[in-house]
Design a protein that fits this description.
There is one protein chain. By secondary structure, the protein is of the alpha/beta class. It folds into 2 domains: 290 residues, Rossmann fold (3-Layer(aba) Sandwich); 115 residues, Copper Amine Oxidase, Chain A, domain 1 (2-Layer Sandwich), CATH 3.30.457. The chain has 16 helices and 18 strands. A 5-stranded parallel β-sheet has the order 2-1-3-4-5, with helices on both faces. A 5-stranded antiparallel β-sheet has the order 10-11-12-13-14, covered by helices on one side. A 4-stranded mixed β-sheet has the order 7-6-18-17. A hairpin with a 2-residue loop joins strand 15 and strand 16. It starts with a helix and ends with a strand.
């Protein structure tokens, strides 16, 4: 494996070192954007993610049936610890900065765009659908609180195939061209996103380098310096955007990979993409950039009761949730207390009336329907009495009760956790 690394390392190293020399010369000049305002109908926090395979969450071996679990999916989890959250992933594997520019321009123009017009040679099987829905994506971006972007890795790596055939002067000129393309395209992308949604915070990631020290101890420090210079370029662009009234934050993921390239990527499989640990770290960096902190999720194993998070706090109770016919049931008073609702029990009708603001849910023991604001709603399994130790507790369907009271309910199968937010 070391021989494979060393064989392919020379052209990569040459490119990155030349890039390091040229990075300081590029500046960005954001254009003024037309002010637009989009009224939001609720308190949902919305994230739209754009970019390349890092946004997709790609790992080697994935196919159309695979469900990525990258940093974007983890951002949804992080958002749910804070409030109602929705995330839309518009990432395209193999995308370069020019392709992102073309795609975002189509979004601005509210027109469909073919896969080839986005970027020729894209292998992502979803790109045709994503391009055909570009017009609809404008509404999503207009309603976003945060827009994340990962881009640039494919621009630089595209030079590797031709590096060995070029003279030093030719290669340096090509690197300079790539850096200018990166700056011009990212500038256009940010300006276009800002024109659609002036209030959105745009979070742009820098680029980590995946080659480990053991591949070449002499070259490794130079690769780190090149990556550091690229980060400085992105930081400089963000600063310039800020001076022009566009909020761009940088997610500094590159420094997190330093010294951990072998444990955070699939480089041992000759693939530069992050592994699950790498994507988790990326999610932490993005989360800290967006919310100022990161909550380490707890994974509840199959033999454990599921987790319940209400407004960012876990319900801890001796009355554990129970799964019946794929429905989660909880002790009624636990959920009532957690959401700040009120409940009244009727011995006469064996029913509980739960109120929260102007919402009311009536749940009767043994009944296959509940009343939500007076309207019957069918349920597969009725509420029941559950013995816990020497106590009998009323257990009710969690999702039906919480959503009936107007709460957002989202179940995360990876964590086996239900997130409930007002």
């Amino acid at each position: 494996m070391l021989q494979v690394w060393k064989k392919g390392l020379a052209p990569v190293t040459t490119i990155m070192l030349m890039a390091m020399l040229l990075l300081g010369s590029w500046a960005v000049a954001p254009a003024s954007a037309q002010e637009q305002q989009l009224a939001k109908n609720d308190n949902t926090y919305r994230i739209v993610s754009l970019g390349d395979s890092l946004t997709v969450g790609y790992e080697p071996g994935m196919d159309m049936n695979s469900k990525p679990y990258g940093f974007v999916e983890r951002l949804l989890e992080q958002g749910l610890y804070h409030s109602r959250t929705e995330v839309v992933n518009l990432g395209i594997a193999g995308l370069k900065t020019d392709g992102l520019h073309q795609y975002v321009q189509a979004i601005v123009d509210e027109r469909a765009i073919s896969a080839n017009d986005i970027q020729s040679g894209l292998q992502d099987p979803r790109v045709a659908t994503i391009g055909s829905e570009a017009a609809q994506a404008k509404t999503l971006i207009a309603g976003a609180d945060v827009i994340t972007v990962t881009i640039g890795g494919n621009d630089m790596m595209g030079l590797v195939k031709t590096a060995g055939t070029l003279t030093t002067e030719e290669l340096m000129a090509r690197v300079e061209e790539v850096l200018k393309i990166y700056t011009d395209n990212v500038t256009a992308v940010v300006n276009n996103l800002h024109s659609i949604n002036p209030d959105a915070v745009i979070v742009l990631a820098d680029q980590y380098q995946p080659i480990p020290k053991m591949a070449d101890k002499v070259v490794y420090p130079k690769l780190l310096e090149a990556a550091d210079q690229f980060t400085k370029l992105v930081d400089g662009m963000a600063e310039t955007f800020g001076k022009n009234g566009i909020t761009v934050k940088v997610a500094h993921v590159a420094k997190e990979f330093v010294g951990s390239e072998m444990t955070m990527t699939h480089i041992l499989k000759e693939d530069i993409h992050p592994n699950q640990y790498g994507y988790e770290v990326m999610a932490r960096v993005f989360s800290e950039t967006i919310w100022g902190g990161y909550t380490k999720p707890v994974v509840y194993e199959a033999e454990q009761p599921m987790g319940i998070i209400v407004s960012g706090k876990e319900i801890k109770t001796p009355y554990k949730p129970v799964m019946v016919k794929n429905q989660n049931f909880v002790a009624i008073q636990d959920i009532v207390n957690a959401v700040g609702a009120e409940s009244k029990w009727s011995n006469k009708t064996s029913s509980a009336t739960i109120t929260y603001g102007d919402k009311e849910v009536v749940i009767k023991i043994g009944s296959k329907s509940v009343k939500v604001n007076g309207t019957p709603v069918s349920i597969d399994t009725p509420a029941f009495l559950h013995k816990v130790g020497k106590e009998q507790k009323t257990y009710v369907p969690l999702a039906v009760l919480a959503s009936g009271l107007g709460f957002d309910v989202q179940y995360n199968s990876k964590l086996r956790t239900v997130f409930i937010n007002p």
